[in-house]
Every structure is written in structure tokens, then in C-alpha cells.
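Nucleoside triphosphate pyrophosphatase
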Amino acid sequence: MTQPPHLVLASASPARRKTLAAAGIDVEVIVSGVDESTVDLTDPAAFCLALAAMKAAAVAERLRGRPVRPGSPVLVLGCDSILAFDGQILGKPADRDEAVARWRQMRGRSGELFTGHSLIDLTGDRHADATAVSTVHFADISDAEIEAYVNTGEPLEVAGAFTIDGLGGPFVESIVGDPGTVVGVSLPLLRRLLATLDVPITQLWRP
């Protein structure tokens, strides 16, 4: 009897894991530990996809040779997100001052959030990669709101210095595109990547 696929998430992001769990997909989390500073690309789509592929490949290599149940495909998903704003590629802020400066620059304006997805099928030794992008319109928030938000520490932990599924939600006016891209994993894109590897996403739903 064929076993359901086993999905390994090569990311420490609680938001990604929560998004997948809400869609009925349980994952095993293995953090890649790759050195992100080795990627030096100016195109935001290529930049985040390269990082996602590095993370997936690092975890896949770690898993090769691990015993699996016959008929149980093992899939590794790597994701990485960045914000493209004013011609810059913005990941996590380095410190509190940078987070404040970013928000003063972003408020009342828009940026593009890119999330690269790299999916590796260890069982069949195949892979599928793609990048999703959504446009984010930021609220014109006050200096006091920026200070209060940065003081929570949340902006220091996420690409672009904001969330839509946490304390930063009230400071995002609207999103054009898949909101999941902004959270860190696009479920429609994941479905398409799985399909290219002949895995219906419904097979990943928990029983």
C-alpha cells in the first residue's frame, strides 16, 4: 500500500509551518543552517529562489540515506522571502534602528514581497522551483506606531520588517496577489509545484 508523502520543511519559520498546518499539511521541520551571505544577486526573484534552493538542497543532502518506508515519498520544501522596495532587496533588519528607518521609508507606499519555493522529491530525485510575488501597500502610520511596533521585536524577525499574520497586520492596507506569499509560503504555488512532481496536494492532507 502506497504511503502518503512525507513533507520536510527546510525553514524555522513558525508562520510557514502554521500556514501549512492550517491547510491540513503536517511537516517535519529541519533548519538548513545555510550561509545566506554567500548569495549576491540583484534580481529579487532570483535572489530569494537561490536561497530557497540552497536551503532545500542542504536539508535534502542531510536526509539522503535515511531509511524510509517503502512507497512513502519524501519531499523537501525550502522557502525564502524578501521585500523589494525602492530598488533595494530587504531581508530581516539588522537592528532596531534599521527597522525604524525602514518603516519611516515604507509607510504610505508599496513594495513587492517575493517568496522563492524549492521542492525536492528525494524518492524520485526530482525538483521543482518557482517564485511568487505579491504587492504590499503599507499604511501611513505615525512615528509613535512605528516605535511601538519595533519595540515589540517582531519586525526584527521577519523579511521586510513586517507581518500580516501578527502585530504588523493593522499596518498593511492591502495586498495584491496571494497573501500566503507574504506570510512565507504560497499554497497555490505549492500545489502547482507538487503537481509537476506528480503529487496531488490532497495526498499531503493529514488523515
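thats it. The mean pLDDT is 93. The first strand starts at residue 6 and ends at 9. bye
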